[in-house]
Amino acid sequence: MTLNKAQKRTILIAVAIAALLFATITSLRAGGYAGWDRAVAAAAADTRASGWTSLWRAMNDMGSAAVVAAVALLSAACWWRLRSWKIAVSFVGVVLSAYVLQSALKSAFGYERPDDAWGITHDGYGYPSGNATIAGALYGWWMLLGWLELRGRVQKIAVCVLACVLIAATGWSRIYFSVHYLSDVCAGFCAGGICALTAATICFWRRS
């Protein structure tokens, strides 16, 4: 498939919006965690219960290294079987690029995590959220592929909804366990989204 002019324009606009949002969040974060960060953290803490904890621990695992690697490799194998080697390789590339990007950004900013983290293991700096970045890249790439490759409207919507749920749930789980604030997660979504959009340009962009 080759992107048409409208799709190219949409992707470029989406990259610009994601980069602008990341820059805005980073600018706000430079002054310390904002009131809305603390308000969302407090709201998440108020919902804590054994049932919710089990659910959000499972959702947190959707952004873990083991699950992400398994999903990426399984996806790559499926697309390789469909004889689309570029897309197959892109799944490995998008995850690796997201991992490298979030690691570099964490080292560059050096912002600490919340002090009251609990329930799951964590390490390293907090900004941006690594799980949110990688989930945004991997499941965001699945969403873009579904929208670009699937023909049926119902199938497109189903893939997009599932991807959005996985991305949002992974991000919220990090807030629920107080290992990240909302700004960390949103910045991660922006960075991961840029990785997914970059994969789309590499795989589908052709000169018209």
TrEMBL record:
InterPro entries: PAP2/HPO, PAP2/HPO_sf
Pfam families to which the protein is assigned, alphabetical: PAP2
TM regions (residue ranges): 62-80, 87-105, 125-145, 157-175, 181-205
Keyword tags: Membrane, Transmembrane, Transmembrane helix
Domain Phosphatidic acid phosphatase type 2/haloperoxidase: 87-200
Superkingdom to which the source organism belongs: Bacteria
Keyword presence, Membrane: yes
Protein's name in the database: Phosphatase PAP2 family protein
